[in-house]
Amino acid sequence: MALFWIRLSLYIFPFLRTVIAASGNCDVAPLSLPWSNVTVSANGVAVARGLELGIGSPNQIFSLRPSTTLNNTRLSNVLDCGSEANTSCVGGKGGVYNSSKSSTCSVSIKDRWNGSAADTETATGSYVYLNDFIDFQSNDSIWGFPLVEDSDLVSGTQSGLPLGQNSSFLAAVTEANVAPSKAWGLWAGDRSLSPIDGALTIGGYDPGRVAGNFATFPLGTWTLQQPCPLQVTVISIMYNQPNESFELLSSENMVACIEPFQDRFTFTPDVVNKFANVTSYDSSYRGLTYPVAQAPDGNMTITLENNYTTVISNSKFVALERGSDQFGHFQITNSSVVETEIVYNAQSDPSTVQPILGGIFLTFNYLVVDYESGHFQLAPAVQGNQHTGSQAVRAICTPTPTSNPSSSSSPPLSSQNKPRKTGIIVGGTVGGVAGLAIMGVLVLLFRRHRQQRRVQELRIEPSDRGAQLSPNVLSVTSSEEAAHSSPSELPLV
Ligand SMILES: *[C@@H]1O[C@H](CO)[C@@H](O)[C@H](O)[C@H]1NC(C)=O
Ligand SMILES: *[C@@H]1O[C@H](CO)[C@@H](O)[C@H](O)[C@H]1NC(C)=O
Ligand SMILES: *[C@@H]1O[C@H](CO)[C@@H](O)[C@H](O)[C@H]1NC(C)=O
Ligand SMILES: *[C@@H]1O[C@H](CO)[C@@H](O)[C@H](O)[C@H]1NC(C)=O
Ligand SMILES: *[C@@H]1O[C@H](CO)[C@@H](O)[C@H](O)[C@H]1NC(C)=O
Ligand SMILES: *[C@@H]1O[C@H](CO)[C@@H](O)[C@H](O)[C@H]1NC(C)=O
Ligand SMILES: *[C@@H]1O[C@H](CO)[C@@H](O)[C@H](O)[C@H]1NC(C)=O
Ligand SMILES: *[C@@H]1O[C@H](CO)[C@@H](O)[C@H](O)[C@H]1NC(C)=O
Ligand SMILES: *[C@@H]1O[C@H](CO)[C@@H](O)[C@H](O)[C@H]1NC(C)=O
Ligand SMILES: *[C@@H]1O[C@H](CO)[C@@H](O)[C@H](O)[C@H]1NC(C)=O
Ligand SMILES: *[C@@H]1O[C@H](CO)[C@@H](O)[C@H](O)[C@H]1NC(C)=O
Ligand SMILES: *[C@@H]1O[C@H](CO)[C@@H](O)[C@H](O)[C@H]1NC(C)=O
After folding, report:
1. Which residue(s) pair with 346 in the sheet?
2. Mean pLDDT for all residues in the chain
3. Residue 131 CB less than 6 A away from ligand 6
4. pLDDT of 103-143, one tens digit each?
5. Average pLDDT for residues 48-66, to the nearest whole number?
6. How far is residue 171 CA from its own chain's centroid?
7. Which of 71, 129, 131 to mutate to test the pocket of ligand 6 (most atoms within 8 A of CB)?
8. Atom 5 in ligand 5: which residue has the minimum CA distance?
9. What is the pLDDT of residue 111?
10. Antiparallel, parallel or unpaired: β 356-357 and 265-266
11. pTM
12. How wide is the angle at C-alpha 292 spanned by C-alphas 288 and 294, nearest 5°?
């Protein structure tokens, strides 16, 4: 209730709002990171598609794939590739880290390290906890950024940029005033044969990429066995051929993770079998690939619980087979075969399969996540190659009504109970103090306040149940690389 009155006073007395905003970090512009081809080897040969980070002094360049299940930034050790000259390996991993090359690297013992404690370790992994300097493509940089050097990353698997609920990356960019808030917006770009770069915006979103209304989904309905925060219930998957449509999802709904770390769809074996059946799949072909003459020609309509519908067009989910060449470049590898953007898991034990709506789903949808508000949002994305400069992005931020920022750094967990950020807020809409406007604001605030209470009621479960569910590490299992080079099942172990 206190927060409610503070916010109310902010709207009624604009001057007060300005004062408080100045002490928060809403003055900081959102941080935009393009999801694009990044050259990750010093000789310019190895290229990986991802979000660019320069780590250490001098910078070592990395290309990381966003991951909603990771909480820490895990990098591959240069020794995993033998040497920096192993370009196919370096490209596949999106860069490798050589700590002895960086004058600012400082190794910590785990207990003293200030990254996120949430990530679990695997028994076989070897982890080094350290802090180093990082640079973004813009001028921004952070000192003492927490990193994990992990020699357990599966060969050919790209490193992930952590966008999980306990992300030390989101914590560091907000604490260093590089981004205004921990909320983020993502368009995955287009990975079809005519590719387009995507973009991740921290502390904001890009309205130029949003083509319709946002649908809102709650966080923390942990019905899946994986630590995946963005879970949705799929109620229908229609495969539409020009002459006939098929429902691929039989009786039961399917709970799936939205996870851009993987490019493809993972459906239940049942759905994949049905798809194989209606597309006359020849199982002598590897994965879900077809001879060009028998390429599936339909599109796919995916409907979520609240009737949010996405049509995945044929040209985006059926394409000539691609894979890595010797430089780690992503190229057509067999022009007589097409592959689908669906993981082939028809033979798998259904209880081991974790459905995923991967990067391809986020080619068609713009995603906005604000963990502190307890929800995330999807809207149809504007596709196509258009200019969206970082000028276009809009902040997602409400001034933090806390004390001055020079005192103790991060707010205590209890403040999490009072969501500070409320979806997408367009700052400065209430400028005047005309009576009518105040009435409108009062109504709005009351409604928002009530919505927040509802959201809080939905957020009862995560930590306790999360512990029981033994959150396994998924960091190492899937990536664009792996998803494309071996079109087989990629279970999220
Ligand atoms: C390159 O890295 C791969 C691992 O991805 C390794 O198997 C191979 O031996 C390395 N090649 C050289 C020349 O070090
Ligand atoms: C790491 O960097 C050091 C210092 O530049 C260099 O001597 C060493 O060979 C590098 N290690 C690898 C595996 O490339
Ligand atoms: C997750 O983050 C919250 C603060 O955002 C922190 O209090 C909590 O301890 C973290 N959990 C773990 C397991 O690190
Ligand atoms: C990331 O943090 C969340 C929230 O604390 C946790 O449920 C999840 O298991 C963590 N992710 C990993 C990979 O451990
Ligand atoms: C980098 O900083 C300089 C000077 O501070 C500024 O003029 C320039 O616009 C900045 N560039 C970007 C991409 O932010
Ligand atoms: C984490 O620790 C490093 C080095 O110990 C320090 O430079 C950095 O400021 C710390 N970061 C945060 C967010 O506390
Ligand atoms: C999807 O396919 C059906 C059948 O071919 C067609 O009628 C419909 O227009 C297609 N929709 C889109 C968005 O491509
Ligand atoms: C519909 O078209 C597909 C190929 O597009 C063909 O394999 C199938 O036999 C057709 N079905 C009917 C009922 O005509
Ligand atoms: C496809 O489904 C039909 C009806 O269930 C079945 O008779 C047929 O054998 C299936 N075909 C394949 C290739 O699985
Ligand atoms: C979704 O659509 C179906 C049929 O069009 C309708 O019966 C149902 O009420 C809708 N559900 C919601 C949540 O809008
Ligand atoms: C990125 O590189 C791949 C080759 O690895 C190329 O096919 C693609 O066109 C490039 N994407 C863009 C947007 O330039
Ligand atoms: C392409 O795939 C087909 C079918 O798997 C195979 O017969 C052919 O040899 C492949 N061609 C190349 C160049 O790999």
Report:
1. none
2. 76
3. yes
4. 999 998 888 888 887 777 776 667 889 999 999 877 788 98
5. 93
6. 15
7. 131
8. 139
9. 83
10. antiparallel
11. 0.79
12. 70
Q: Pick the more confident residue, 261 or 408.
A: 261
| Three-class SS state of 36 | strand
pLDDT at 157 over 90: no
CA-wise closest residue to 7 among 458, 425, 461: 425
What pLDDT does residue 155 have?
53
Locate tokens 């399969």: which residue?
Answer: 353
pLDDT tens digits along 391-416? 588 899 877 665 333 333 232 222 22
Cβ of residue 175 lying under 6 Å from some atom of ligand 6: yes
Measured in Å, residue 315 CA sits from the centre of ligand 7 at: 12
Residues having CB within 6 Å of any atom of ligand 4 = 69-71, 118-120, 164-166, 227, 466, 471, 473, 475
Choose among 146, 135, 50, 126: nearest CA to 93: 50
Q: How far apart are CA 66 and CA 74, in angstroms?
A: 12
Rg (CA), the chain: 23
Q: Is the CB of 86 under 6 A from ligand 1?
A: yes
Q: Which atom of ligand 8 is nearest to the CA of 298?
A: 5
Residue with CA nearest ligand 4 atom 12: 119
Closest ligand 12 atom, residue 286 Cα: 5
Distance of alpha carbon 331 from alpha carbon 482, whole angstroms? 14
